[in-house]
Amino acid sequence: MKEFWYWAEEYDKKLITSAIEAGAKVIILNDPDKEEEVKRLGRIEVFKEGRDFEYVLIKGKEDEERAGKYPPNVKVVVETTDWTIIPLENLIAQREELYAVVKNEEEAKTAIKILEKGVKGVVLKSKDINVIKKVGKVLEEEEENLPLVVVKITRILPLGLGDRVCVDTTSLLNRGEGMLVGNSSGGMFLVHAETEENPYVASRPFRVNAGAVHMYIRLPNNRTKYLCELKAGDEVMVYDYKGRGRVVYVGRAKVERRPMLLVEGKADNKKISAVLQNAETIRLTRPDGTPISVAELKEGDEVLGYIESEGRHFGMKVEETIIEK
Fold first, then answer.
1. 181 secondary structure, DSSP code
2. By percentage, how much of the chain surpasses pLDDT 90?
3. Adjacent-strand bridge partners of 204
4. Domain named 3-dehydroquinate synthase C-terminal: which ranges (predicted)?
5. pTM value?
6. pLDDT per residue as tens digits for the range 55-82
7. Residue 200 in domain
8. How far, in Å, CA of 310 to CA of 146, rounded?
9. If 322 and its partner were Cys, which of 40, 162, 282, 311 is the partner (CB 3.0–4.6 Å)?
């Protein structure tokens, strides 16, 4: 997830509070006498130029080269005089810890998408509360787009009792959204959120009953975790049926012993499998975004999933030969 910093050119309680409420993680303030006042407004980091980051105003090629020469671990904030994207393109190709000064939401949208990778974060300079809120919204809704695939169900097998993880988030999920989970990180199903009501239980639109403890779940920045490792405060990815992803936070991960079901399918001749709770409220996602309960699922049905070729090591994608059955 891209970072949101707010550059307060002077201490202004109203503006800084608005930035914190909009999701800013860092307030830049060069007045050390006001640092404690800022921290009293919320749990927030206060950065100072030259201490926590280096600032470069790019007027020409010489400035661009100077910004690129800092050590890799140094955070560099760059500002361009006419907001052309060419210097940012060059610097993004050179360094990870790059932040761009923006003045509105349109510049923020561009900065986080340049060369598809984008800058690590945006630094907003604005005294307009509405602009602060809009930039916060841009960062909150920053999307990751995945090419979801259609998976044809090939096998459904009751397994008996097992431990499964219910992931409750601090966000409300929509119909057509869910989490990508699977027995292998190379193949995952889109398990639908509990947005649907039925005669026996109310909807829980903040929840995804994700499956067995051993399975992988997709996280931000192309990482994975085992479901049993999730805890309150963790970031996880939620995707809709078109493959658009957003970051949500875990409020609670609940492990309970329940009857389980092995679900297998194929996409592009690649096998995908998952172990899910055997209950009517657990649903996969059809290609049109509608949910289908595992209780109704049958061989030949088509649902959504995701496949990748690389293996994983400690949750990071690696290129190596891995066989999982």
1. E
2. 72
3. 194
4. 151-325
5. 0.73
6. 999 888 888 889 999 999 999 999 987 6
7. yes
8. 15
9. 311
